[in-house]
Design brief:
8-stranded parallel beta barrel; alpha/beta
Length: 310
């Protein structure tokens, strides 16, 4: 099988998990969520990733969320990437087959999280199995060592793949190590797409040649991220720097809480019309404390949170 082509570049929003107040899925909000992002100019969606809490859902729930997003993007025409990893291998294979059967645009996959790979060869062998389950769908690897403790160097990994995984097209690089990211970008004559997953390094990464990003902040601040992206493209480095500092300040204010996903969910509910509920990983005893702190921090930064929302 020849290597699959993959042309999508630019921004992708890693959408938040759609839960109701009782912790059950709130699938009804997904259509509104897709429309909100599309109207803001966001053309790519990542489902069931870290922000999407795929690892906190059953296989059945992950399939339902995927199916609902597939229906939503049929109207909005957004690029749809589905994260299938973070589960026992038989479930990962099942999720990959399911996503591929729905003709999603791409699949993203975490490494094996218990029998962790420690070499590029071991990681390639794992991804080969996932790729074989979805032979017609572009496959990307999800590199997020802060969560997985899989610290394989991405430059070395990408140099090692060659033609071993015909479906493989790139990585989501969630790291602050831009030296490693630059090596990944240059690997095998720039063969692979690198989606940076760091909200605070957009302008720095763009200067190194990265042109694609999967950023949690897109959910709440799509206009600001698009402005940074436009300033980088136009070569206005001073404007890009100033806008990046603005985004970094509000991201730090939101993310300083213990549960970053829940903090972003709260910020989205406070500043937009999209409420994706409470994170399944959050101790409910600290929920009100986070809300109160975020309201103060966002207000001090010049935003107008809906204080009476909760």
């Amino acid at each position: 099988m020849s290597r699959l082509s993959y042309t999508y570049r630019g921004l992708i929003a890693p959408v938040l998990a759609p839960f109701g107040n009782n912790g059950s899925l709130n699938l009804d909000i997904i259509s509104q969520y897709a429309s909100y992002l599309a109207k803001k100019g966001i053309k790519g969606i990542l489902v069931n990733g870290t922000n999407g809490e795929g690892m906190a859902m059953s296989v059945t729930e992950r399939k339902l969320v995927t199916e609902t997003w597939v229906k939503a993007v049929q109207k909005t025409k957004q690029h749809l990437m589905i994260q299938v990893g973070g589960a026992p291998l038989p479930d990962v294979i099942e999720l990959a087959k399911h996503a591929s059967s729905l003709s999603v645009d791409s699949i993203l996959c975490l490494p094996e999280l218990y029998f962790k790979p420690t070499t590029p060869t071991q990681l390639i062998e794992y991804l080969e199995i996932v790729g074989q389950a979805a032979p017609k769908t572009p496959l990307l690897y999800y590199h997020i060592p802060m969560m997985t403790n899989v610290n394989i160097h991405m430059g070395q990994f990408l140099e090692s793949i060659r033609d071993k995984i015909p479906q493989f097209v790139g990585i989501k690089f969630t790291s602050s190590n831009l030296e490693e990211g630059a090596q990944a970008l240059r690997a095998d004559d720039r063969k692979y797409v690198i989606f940076l997953g760091n909200n605070q390094l957009i302008n720095a990464a763009y200067a190194l040649g990265m042109d694609s990003f999967i950023l949690s902040s897109i959910n709440v601040f799509p206009e600001l991220v698009l402005d940074i992206f436009a300033a980088c493209k136009s070569g206005d480095t001073l404007r890009a720097k100033n806008l990046q500092e603005k985004l970094s300040s509000v991201v730090v204010a939101i993310m300083k809480h213990g549960n970053r996903v829940q903090a972003m969910k709260i910020a989205m509910a406070l500043l937009t019309d999209i409420d994706t509920g409470v994170s399944r990983a959050l101790p409910k005893s600290v929920f009100s404390e986070i809300v109160e702190t975020e309201i103060k921090d966002l207000t001090s930064l010049g935003y107008q949170p809906k204080i009476k929302y909760y």
